[in-house]
Specification:
Chains A, B: One of its GO terms (cellular component) is endoplasmic reticulum membrane. The structure is a homodimer of 532-residue chains. With 532 residues, chain A is an alpha/beta fold. The first copy, chain A, contains 21 helices and 13 strands. In chain A, the strands form 2 sheets. Chain A has a 7-stranded parallel beta sheet with strand order 3-2-1-4-5-6-7, with helices on both faces. In chain A, strands 10-9-8-11-12-13 form a 6-stranded parallel beta sheet, with helices on both faces.
Chain lengths: 532, 532
């Protein structure tokens, strides 16, 4: 295919925007974000909405890590039931626990006390928010056009319902099977791997069995896990309700994934895929990092980060890792805030923070060691860097599986791996050219889209503000119970008709036979008796 | 919401396109279109692809109505098995038949000889194409990047398979359940009305029953209807194959609908919705039509067309219609080529052709009488004109139902309606303001999208050319048989385990009981005998 000089389709897009909406309209948006890495991409959407002239107000708890600091739009806070020290302690215990044990199944993951206590903290925020009368009055009087929220702590659903606000949820997914239930989206467990199962789309019979059992566990256990937020919602809304009832009025689901990263599966019209928002052109490196990269010579560098939530790891594991890193000729830049391992090799530089996307975008970067958080994965994917994946919790096992099954990375069990395993994995993704080729192909596919994920996310938030929701995208399935949805009443009715017809036919046939053969029998017998 | 002066998101889109693909690439595209109204929107996509610098070649039969005339790109023809006279005669018989009888169900629609003979003509094109050795050599030597086809005559699938070409299908839908089967898209018959059922998304039990029976008819009858093209495909590809096998390798399905017009339902990632391509800003009217509109005074005009395929109607029906049109104060512009009805009122102007979109876009247009073809519906919808819908065949019943159920039009049974019915329907959509409000709301929603349907269609054809298909959007469901897809083997296995466990438990319990009570019995009996 020969190159033509002009980029395509710009003028018509412009024309269409003008034709469709005329000048942009400024709306009033209530934002309920989630702390931690979740805010990385949602923050970019909110910032762009603010820059577009919308009146954005963010509501957050007083206690948080990265929310509300230095944002250019108003922030309202409420007092949570815990202090920052409590929050840090509970999170530390949760994070440290990941180094002891990777849960074997959904049941053990959901019932781990270190997990449940963290979630009880998060879930309690909603009660705290609704105890702040002044904040409630402010929200009511502000007459927001819509609410834009991260559903992880569940409170966005409650606020949307309480104030009857059109709503846009921004998330990687929901717990268990609830996104499918809330959006009425079919998801056959025969080829759609369940969340946190760590399975791929191509499953053996045993894996399909495992996936199905995982699904059965979701259906039977997950409502229990979400009992607290559902009870809180019930208290606030003053009526009992189920998880599905709490979730199902969401107008648009902005999902932080796409089908270059995720496996193809059924969708619904109000699901919009915006994976890759944090990928942007890499900026020039600071002097410090430029120095590291330049000094790496022909071998280049490896970027190593376990994400913003995990910066320390047990010393024995750290030494094992350090040992492995010393076996490759690349310079390794390792984001690590703990005590340096004593066996750190010369090629390994520990840094407290690193410009991840800018480093991944550097042509000398050969590999990325990551915990497989979705933001990190997308930065690796966008920049075309093969990965060594060391998933720890949440969706990370699934994310790792997706990269591995596409030949773009090697997954390691971080608890069981040896130094040799890590060394081998690194050498594989760096030296086996297929990994680089595959991640470059995925990178090109991911970027080949008609509109950037950030613009798409902004468009749909604005759409919901402009149109007071998106009820035209709500499927009629919401009006059916599960019996009707699966047409079981119709099938039962048809079966009843068929059985009745068969019954009548058989009875009629038997009756006829009886009559005919009875008569024949008699008729035959009669002549016989006569002949005698 | 106050107005801001700047249109949104232009610079980032530009940046994204530059970042993503760099300069646009010119590809080689093979186009297999369908004659008649189908070409209206597909032609616009092909024209834009040609203007974007792609090397487009269209392959069509020598005999056609509107294909190939005055297009600015090369056209290659093959000799079909029929003459233009045959084609016109068969189509006229098919069209005339619509005035005699509206089929009661799918079975009678598919078995009508006037329908089947028309389709046998269309299906035979593929055999004719493959009998043209020179054309086949040309296609092979051209090394096209992709094929872009209308699947109505089925031949695009065969050409794509024969030459192993990545493919984009452009259609309103496929016959029966085959789109869902080909794309592995779930479609619960409890709320997704089957094609040609004329049902809405909100169904009573009786309607759900009807929809389910319609679905059963599709599954049992439709393969027979498509036996000819499947046999032709089998002969050409030299292996027996099913309809699903013929369809399922299509990379992208460009579907001429959206969820303002259609009801929300499950989708798959390789389905792209591009309804409304023919809607564009209306151009100024010619002197003739400007004269009619100006002379209509305060009452304005009504636009009446039964589409490009039906221009004549039986005289008795035409007189009934003419009678009704005389009862409204609006001027009616009626596209009609038959003998003028003798009772034509003064307010009714017969024209052989009318600039439909431009008239519908005129502010004095009060209503649109249409056969509910999808192109016409979208032009009415874009321009916000309430409709009186007189569906005749194919998807028209469904299209009419969608507009009616949204309060944007009134549907009439064209065979059974009286003059009074049409008069009443016209007065209703013109005078009841809710119809205008509803169609204006739908119009605004339809236009409120991040990218125009034409640009979106062009993007995906280019995507498939650039990337040699879209295998990353192909769900793993294609690798499962129906038993596995529905997890029936897994469920059977789990049931077997449960039953075995229950069986062993019951047997063990009974064995224990027998042992215990047996012993106890004996033990009890022993002391008793001793005591005696």
């Amino acid at each position: 295919m020969a190159c033509l000089p002009q980029p395509r389709g710009l003028l018509p897009l412009w024309t269409w925007l003008l034709l469709a909406g005329g000048a942009a309209e400024a709306g009033k948006l209530l934002v309920l974000p989630m702390d931690g890495s979740h805010w990385l991409s949602m923050g970019m959407v909110v910032e762009k909405l603010h820059r577009s002239g919308h009146e954005v107000t963010m509501v957050i708890p007083e206690v948080s890590w990265r929310l509300g600091s230095s944002v250019p739009y108003p922030v309202r806070t409420y007092k949570p039931s815990y202090t920052l020290e409590d929050y840090n302690r509970v999170f530390r215990r949760f994070a440290d626990n990941q180094w002891d044990d990777i849960p074997k199944d959904l049941s053990s993951a959901l019932s781990n006390p270190n997990t449940t206590v963290l979630f009880e903290y998060l879930f309690s925020n909603c009660r705290s928010l609704f105890q702040n009368a002044e904040l409630l009055r402010f929200i009511r009087e502000s007459a927001f056009d819509a609410i834009f929220f991260d559903p992880f702590d569940q409170c966005g659903f409650v606020v949307a319902k309480y104030f009857s606000l059109p709503s846009v949820a921004f998330t990687r997914g929901l717990f268990c099977h609830f996104l499918e239930e809330a959006a009425q989206c079919p998801s056959p467990p025969s080829y759609v791997p369940r969340g946190m199962s760590g399975l791929s789309e191509s499953m053996t019979f045993a894996e399909r069995l495992q996936n199905y059992v995982h699904y059965l566990q979701e259906v039977s256990l997950c409502s229990l896990f979400l009992q607290t937020p559902v009870n809180i919602a019930g208290d606030i809304l003053q009526r009992p309700l189920t998880v599905k009832e709490l979730y199902r009025d969401t107008d648009i689901w902005l999902l932080r994934t796409d089908f270059v990263f995720d496996y193809p599966k059924p969708l619904m019209p109000n699901m919009v895929f915006v994976g890759g928002i944090t990928c942007h052109e890499s900026k020039p490196l600071s002097e410090e990092f430029e120095g590291y990269v330049n000094a790496s010579g022909e071998h280049g560098i490896v970027v190593f980060s376990l994400g913003s939530m995990v910066s320390e790891i047990p010393m024995a594991k750290a030494m094992e890792i350090a040992d492995a890193l010393g076996t490759i000729p690349q310079t390794v830049l390792w984001r690590y805030t703990g005590k340096p391992p004593s066996n750190l090799a010369k090629n390994t530089k520990l840094v407290k923070w690193l410009p991840q996307n800018d480093l991944l975008g550097h042509p000398k970067t050969r590999a990325f060691i990551t915990h497989a958080g979705s933001h990190g994965i997308y930065e690796g994917l966008c920049n075309g860097v093969p990965m060594v994946l060391m998933p720890l919790f949440g969706d990370q096992m699934d994310n790792a599986k997706r990269m591995e099954s596409r030949g773009a990375g090697v997954t390691l069990n971080v608890l069981e791996m040896t130094s040799a395993d890590l060394s081998k994995a690194l050498k594989t993704v760096i030296n086996d050219k297929s990994y680089k080729e595959n991640i470059m192909r995925l990178s090109a596919l991911h970027k080949d889209r008609p509109i950037s994920p950030l613009d798409l996310a902004v468009f749909w938030v604005e759409f919901v503000m402009r149109n007071k929701g998106a009820p035209h995208l709500r499927p009629a399935a919401h009006d059916l119970n599960w019996f009707q949805y699966h047409s079981l009443d119709v099938i039962a009715f048809l079966l009843a008709i068929v059985l009745t017809v068969v019954f009548i036919a058989v009875k009629s046939y038997m009756f006829c036979c009886q009559k005919c053969f009875g008569k024949k029998g008699k008729a035959k017998k009669a002549p016989k008796s006569k002949s005698h």
